[in-house]
Amino acid sequence: MSKHLTQAELQDLAIVNDAPVRTKVERNFGLPTGLYVATVALYLGFIGLMATLFHNPELAIPMVIFAGFIIIAFGLAGLWTRMKPDNDTTPMTWGQFGVRGIDTPSGRLTANEATVQVLMLPVLILGWGLAIAVIVAFT
What we know:
It is a single chain. The chain is mainly α and 139 residues long. The chain has one domain (23-137). Helices cover 60% and strands 4% of the residues. It has helices spanning 7-13, 33-53, 60-81, 94-100, 111-137; strands at residues 102-104, 107-109. The protein has a two-stranded antiparallel ribbon with strand order 1-2. Helix 2 runs antiparallel to helix 3 and helix 2 (33-53) runs parallel beside helix 5. The longest helix is centred in the C-terminal third of the chain and has 27 residues, at 111-137. The protein is elongated and about 85 Å long. 6% of the residues are buried.
């Protein structure tokens, strides 16, 4: 049950500490940088494939905009991980990733499982682009 406390009772119970609170900020996504680089490369590969496949001058500006969005989105996230103050975390190395794996809300994943999970969507998107390329080649 709850009990109503007066201001005087709260002052008696409270421990006041005027020292500034320094919290450590973790701006690390917990995966090796190479996985993010591979993700960007696969997305840009899809954009490049579509630009090459549908070599149309009218699509040049949208393709550059799409590529710019991908670069900016991942670049901004990369800059955010390097922000200071109190950010002394670094991404895992491939060796650490291989040994430890990663904890997710749904459970622990090995390095191979996490890599598949991270790269699944970009690989499927690039595969979709290759399927479109095959269809266009035969029409």
